Amino acid sequence: MRFTKRLSDVVASGKRDFLEESGRGGQCPSLIGRRISSATFAHSEPSPLTTIPHAPSDTCSSHSTLPSAPPRSLPPERLDCLPIMGFAFDQAPERPENIDAILNGLDRYNPETTGVFQDYIAQQCQDQSYDCYANLALLKLYQFNPHLTQLETTTNVLAKALTVFPSPDFSLCLSLLPPYVLAQSRNSEKTGAAPSGTLAEAVQHLSLLHHQLNNAQYDAFWDTLNGDDLYADLVADVQGFEELLRVRIAVVVSQCMQEVQRSILEGWLNLKGAKFDNFVKEVCGWKIEGEKVVIPLNKENEARSSVVRENVKFEQFGRMVKRAYEQPA
């Protein structure tokens, strides 16, 4: 099998971008990455690499003004894949030029661009690309123009943000929602379900999934997702939602473990039997040894002792020492 990114490289790349952005005082990108670009499984040299399943799709909308990939058909056992890459918060390499022009110009706050952003989000749901910066721009437009808000589109933005956990995208999206929606969602957690068919109901249910993912309650996440048809409706528009989450969970597991019991990992990935074996071996590049799954060493899961040394020259303190002997004005 030929893939395009090793799991260990994924973690290292994301961490490096995170540190670089933090050092510049800019926005911190996801440790796992932002952008997903298309590639395809092909038989070649065996190499343990990580990819994200990608569902083929047609255009996002019959009246969309955005370019879209031609439809493709793949056999069920074959998956079109998307490598995980690390990118800055406001960057998306596959972002269309017209969207980029809007985001970098005054039209970003023009209500007339709302439809363009909505089509772009529909396209993201279909081709499994992701553009957090554009999605947040649409939510900001909804803030300024509440009458333009579309429940389905807002729900899709939140669902897409879940697919890039453990990045803070979901929380960023929540911060741009109307305060009354968040208040209703919080109150419904105490008093019961939020009013049916409202944004508050969608926020309540998706927030529960977000909480379970962030707290590594993966078994509970799958039980919750599969236990109520409402959850299936909320994520129905996001192609490959479950496959994307499995890869994210696998990346997080690879960051903190060197081996894990097969039965535990089956629950975390919600896979069993041959499907589990294929995912672990072919997608993740891990080894199955009896009832254990062995994860290759990487910079995150390998325990290493580190010695920190700081060389500070006396001349660097010269100015401070000089100030100490200066007379006050």
TrEMBL record:
Q: Where in the cell is it found?
A: Cytoplasm
Where does this chain mainly localize?
Answer: cytoplasm
Gene3D superfamilies xref list = ARM repeat, domain 1, Winged helix-like DNA-binding domain superfamily/Winged helix DNA-binding domain
Cytoplasm is among the record's keywords: yes
Q: Provide the assembly information.
A: Component of the eukaryotic translation initiation factor 3 (eIF-3) complex.
Q: Which family does it belong to?
A: Belongs to the eIF-3 subunit K family.
Under HAMAP family, the record lists: eIF3k (MF_03010)
Name the UniProt record assigns to this protein: Eukaryotic translation initiation factor 3 subunit K
